[in-house]
Fold:
Amino acid sequence: ARPSTIQSSHPAADTAAPGQTIPDDVRRCLSVLYATREGEQALDRDFGISWEAVDKPPAVAQAFLAQEIIAKTKRYEPRANITRVDFDSPDLLSGVFRPRVTVEVQQ
Structure:
């Protein structure tokens, strides 16, 4: 077996997908993580974002979601360091609001 130089638990921490730069690969990986509902991945039920915040008051839901995004990013994408989580103004009729996550990519 050849030795590994990866220093984290993430299997692709020091690499990018073929044809992608590391920042592009991090963006792609985070998009998959954030678009996945926790429990959907058969071999890793913790992967994805919890929906426990659904039907909570907006301030509670935003705080929970921000914490969830930070924790899951640290666990599943160690190349990304979150510097900020903001939310677009909610659509009061639908109750939908979208997080905007600002990250620094470690290369």
Notes: The first strand starts at residue 80 and ends at 87. The helical segments are 22-35, 58-76. The CA atoms of residues 84 and 102 lie 5 Å apart.
